[in-house]
Amino acid sequence: MRGRRWSALLAATLSVGLPAIAPQQLRLTPAAEAAGCPDTELVFARGRNEAPGAGQIGNTLFTRLQAKTGKNIRLYAVRYPANTEVDLGANDMSRHIQAMVASCPRTRIVVGGYSLGAAVSDVVLAVPLPFVTFRNPLPAAAAGNIAAVALFGNGFQWVGPITSFSPVYRDRTIELCHGDDPVCNPTIPQNWRARWPDHLAPAYIKAGLVERAANFVAGRI
């Protein structure tokens, strides 16, 4: 029943007729091809409509992890349009993690996402089979390489935390929701416009939630 509920959620969330995966996206990611392996790699999916890259939260989490651990940490920004294309982001994230596991098996992987990017992470970690246009599910064995998961403003909190769908990551996951963020806080469903500032990336950073996530992750890498 839980699997059916998750599938139904994805069907409602992912738009019909999403664009096909471009051929160039099927190549190995640069991090997998690069010489040398970092101690840790943060694989982060930015929020909706953020500029290409890891976004404000992903970049801040990366710099705080570097400062806290002193380890060789690399950042991989998930490649996707970050509009509504959760499936494209999930395909790229999963493909990159698999390439890293194959080429750098000792590297500790941290999965992260903000807003739409959190949904990308949800699909990769909690959906064991291809669904709609998510065509590259993460093999179960890859879970052993994932040291921590950090999610911010995750809309799937309306159904339940990711750990309820993917218990293997329960002790490795931190899900953060800022105040009355209407995307991830289902307790006050009205007045979205007034509550919207609580969802913005600067609000998460200023409230210390990225710092909290960095502390959590640093203890697991």
Task: Report on the architecture of this protein.
The protein has helices at residues 2-13, 30-33, 55-69, 86-103, 116-126, 162-165, 192-195, 201-206, 209-218; strands spanning 40-45, 73-77, 108-114, 146-152, 173-176. With 221 residues, it is of the alpha/beta class. It has a 5-stranded parallel sheet with strand order 2-1-3-4-5, sandwiched between helices. The longest helix has 18 residues, at 86-103. Residues 1-29 have low confidence and may be disordered.
Keyphrases for this structure?
221 residues; alpha/beta; 5 strands; 5-stranded parallel beta sheet; globular
- Spatial extent as radius of gyration: 16 Å
Tally the helices.
9
Q: Compute the average pLDDT.
A: 81
Relative helix content: 25-40%
Which structural class should the secondary elements be placed in? alpha/beta
Question: What's the story with the biggest beta sheet?
Answer: 5 strands, parallel
The number of strands is 5
Give the SSE string.
Answer: HHEHEHEHEHEHHH
Low-confidence sequence ranges: 1-29
Report the span from N to C terminus: 34 Å
Instruction: Name the strands of the widest sheet in spatial order.
Output: 2-1-3-4-5
The dominant shape is: globular
- What fraction of residues sit in β-strands? 5-15%
Quick rundown:
With 221 residues, the chain is α/β, with parallel strands linked by helices. The chain contains nine helices and five strands; from the N terminus they run ααβαβαβαβαβααα. 38% of the residues lie in helices and 13% in strands.
